């Protein structure tokens, strides 16, 4: 598919020529030179300079997003992969030191101190942090890291199984987990688990190579361990290791017992001894699985209706995105797993990617990504790219709030009884998610504070955390699947330490939901102001 059709014109460029080929370094270099030479002497000249810098940054960001989107929509098209790889191998490594040069220049300019502080404090802090962390010798290492991440995505994107007479992606297999037929659930779950295990060595190997690269970057930057480095890189200015550990402890104390009680109730209702990993999705009362839609078109239509009921202005969003080819929703072979929202930074428009197969989870995923998109649209008039993106701890408040606010209107897809059932299930999933977030986060704390660990030690650490935060389901006979369970969590590979953000954001989203239920107008107004 082509990304973006008949888009409204992008915001006018300042220094980037309209016909520039953004995949050609010889056309980009003079623009960096131009920015280098500017040396603004006053605060207002500096603001103009920041806008020029921003112009080039937005153009390159959009180019990178477009190539990334094309690759994830067509993991089986070598041309898309080549274009993406060209960008990360030929353009980004050359651009990175040039951005860095601009940041260093910024930090050294006396006029920087005269910039109005309320407006520029956050940007200033971020630029200075990057200046302090940057090491030119890390640039090629980051490039290697990105290539390994592509390898991970290719490996997991190519995983399929033949089940029920057809080749299916592992995402497509999810719909078998909520079937009433237990032996069928079991064989579906077992088949997926063994398919993942087939590539376990390659996955561990990719991860070990990533660890080495990250270790070296840490040493180059002069940080104690990768955790300290990653916390600074992720701009965690307002919380640290101690707060993460408090989060783990709170989840262990309050949420884990609740999760286990819910599972015990499920086990009793299902009359099972013991509860097994393939029994966690099926409706405990034996009702057939919820099937909110069949085609992506119905999904878009239903979610549009839900969004307009949350707020009339949110409703027009999805129709707009579909009309402009800014959605790729259906799961198919040759498409990367997962879901995300990317931004075309010059047009200041979102693109939504997901793998819908007809499940309730797809409804909440689309509401989630729509929440990010509403956020992007609310920030559209902000001229500075840096300020159009919130930190992830807050960005996910936008998306997770939309999931919860939207759940009040599930009647669009279901009759009242089913809608209630979907809501109960989602609250139960919130509870499970908090436990999973604690597991994934604590696991990464262990990984990066135990350099040089062996694969078996890593598995043991994962098992230990499963005992601490996991449920009561019994993995007998599937011990290998359990101890390699983290392989399926792509963040651990692609975005180290990026996970507790979901926990922080979920707590925020639950508060937004509560506020809107108490007073809809005031709650929504506060939510939009926050965006
Ligand atoms: Zn999100």
Alpha-carbon Rg, integer: 24 Å
Q: What is the percentage of strand-forming residues? A: under 5%
Q: What helical percentage do the residues reach? A: 55-70%
**CATH class call of the largest domain:** Mainly Alpha
Query: What is the terminal separation in angstroms?
Result: 31 Å
Overall shape: globular
Task: Summarize the helix and strand pattern as letters.
Answer: HHHHHEEHHHHHHEEEHHHHHHHHH
Bound small molecules, deduplicated: zinc ion
How many strands in all? 5
Q: Describe the biggest sheet?
A: 3 strands, mixed
| Spatial strand order of the main sheet | 3-5-4
Question: What's a concise summary of this model?
Answer:
The protein contains 20 helices and five strands.
What do these coordinates show?
The chain is mainly alpha-helical and 531 residues long. The protein has three domains: 25-134, no CATH class; 161-289 and 420-498, Orthogonal Bundle (Neurolysin, domain 3), CATH 1.10.1370; 296-413 and 519-530, Collagenase (Catalytic Domain) (3-Layer(aba) Sandwich), CATH 3.40.390. Helix content is 65%, strand content 5%. The chain is built from 20 helices and five strands. The protein has helices at 25-38, 43-73, 78-108, 117-133, 138-157, 182-198, 200-221, 226-233, 241-270, 296-310, 312-323, 360-378, 385-388, 392-407, 416-448, 455-469, 479-483, 490-494, 500-518, 520-530, and strands spanning 160-163, 166-169, 327-330, 340-344, 349-356. The strands form two sheets. Strands 3-5-4 form a three-stranded mixed sheet, sandwiched between helices. Strands 1-2 form a two-stranded antiparallel sheet. Helix 10 packs antiparallel against helix 11 (312-323), helix 12 crosses helix 14 and helix 19 (500-518) packs antiparallel against helix 20 (520-530). The radius of gyration is 24 Å and the shape is globular. It starts with 24 loop residues before the first helix and ends with a helix. The model has no long low-confidence stretch (mean pLDDT 94). The protein binds zinc ion (ZN). Zinc ion binds next to helix 12 and helix 14. Zinc ion (ZN) is lined by residues 368, 372, 396, 399.
